[in-house]
Write a structure and sequence with these properties.
The protein is of the alpha/beta class. The chain contains eleven helices and 13 strands. 36% of the residues lie in helices and 16% in strands.
């Protein structure tokens, strides 16, 4: 891994100028503005400990997901929950390229890592599960980070059947779920099975435009929830995160954001595709992975930085070489600035 490239997007603190941050995949419409008053009025809640069991918060999440509270876990961002899940296993399958924290957390907990390279289409195929055995953990991001690819319902079911047959465990990281256009909801799909052998993790960070709130949540079978109760640190979720849930799980806000991002993504994809030397990957998330022909990621990165635009270099993703960058889908106006800058660079 290239140590000069940050492990995550949003690394604006290394620069002493204002940047348009296309490296961080946050809802371009921002958080619901009604939240300002909620945060102000809840300041006194900081004077007492939150409920260590987060009963009210978990009940709201259960209602949003249309499942039972007994299956709900919350954490300080989705990474805290993912870290706990990883710690329960001894071997993990990671499909590359993928979110760097899977490997980092697995290394911290001393797991054997089975690294599976996807081909250049970045599509998941069932042959990637060869070698899976009882007790293994599989982590799949859906939509994938950094590609934006999603699993079809048929492939997801086939993966799950293989997992159950071998008594392995499937962890779905769905941090970008609300941005995606899918014909299924995995929480609903596995509800009748009481989430046996499968966990699903989501977050407020991306879609709800609040990376600083640090609230992750997920659904798990009761045995895993019991393991969490013995593993988790107390009070890892703060009072602002708890109170924000009153506003965030709002259907109008969710529908409006999904529609805006989908349309903006399609426009940006088509514009970037028209630039010679740039090949965007079809995405079902709020970002695009771009293959650059005739230039390195570092060259494009520096040229864009000179134009006050920050993007995500991708060579520290395993199975991506130094000719990929990832860009967030932002407002149509900002997307146009990015498009024009890349066209100018590539034509030059």
């Amino acid at each position: 891994m290239n140590s000069l490239i940050p492990s995550h997007g949003g690394d604006i603190y290394n620069y002493d100028k204002n940047l348009i941050d296309f490296s961080s995949n946050i809802n371009p419409l921002g958080y619901p503005k009604e939240l300002d008053e909620i945060i102000k009025s809840s300041f006194e809640d900081l004077l007492k400990y939150p409920d260590v069991e987060y009963r009210e918060l978990r009940a709201k999440i259960a209602k949003y997901l249309d499942t039972d509270i007994e299956y709900i876990e919350v954490g300080n961002g989705s990474v805290e929950i993912i870290d706990m899940v990883i710690s329960f296993f001894s071997r993990v399958f990671i499909f590359e390229p993928s979110f760097s924290e899977y490997r980092l957390r697995a290394e911290v907990h001393g797991l054997d890592i089975v690294s599976i390279d996807l081909d250049k289409s970045f599509e998941f195929t069932l042959d990637k599960l060869e070698g899976l055995r009882e007790g293994d953990l599989i982590i799949i991001t859906n939509p994938s980070n950094p590609t934006g690819k999603t699993l079809t319902k048929e492939i997801l079911k086939e993966i799950y059947l293989r997992v159950v047959d071998l008594n392995a465990y499937l962890l779905l990281d769905e941090a970008f779920f609300e941005f995606s256009d899918l014909d299924y909801d995995s929480v609903e799909l596995f509800k009748k099975l009481a989430y046996s052998n499968v966990g699903i993790v989501r977050a407020m960070t991306k879609f709800f435009g609040l990376p600083g709130i640090r609230l992750g949540y997920g659904v798990f079978e009761k045995d895993i929830i019991e393991k969490f109760s013995k593993k988790r640190l107390p009070w890892s979720v703060n009072s602002f995160a708890v109170n924000s849930s009153d506003i965030l799980f709002n259907k109008d806000y969710i529908d409006k954001s999904f529609k805006y991002v989908k349309e903006a993504r399609e426009i940006l994809f088509n514009n970037l595709k028209s630039i010679k030397g740039i090949s965007p990957v079809e995405s079902n998330a709020n970002f695009l992975l771009l293959k650059i022909d005739g230039a390195s990621e570092d060259y494009i990165f520096r040229e864009l930085l000179d134009r006050d635009i920050l993007v995500r270099r991708c060579s520290n993703y395993k199975n991506l070489d130094g000719t990929y960058i990832r860009v967030a889908v932002k407002t149509r106006e900002l997307n146009e600035i990015l498009y024009k800058a890349l066209r100018e660079i590539m034509e030059g």
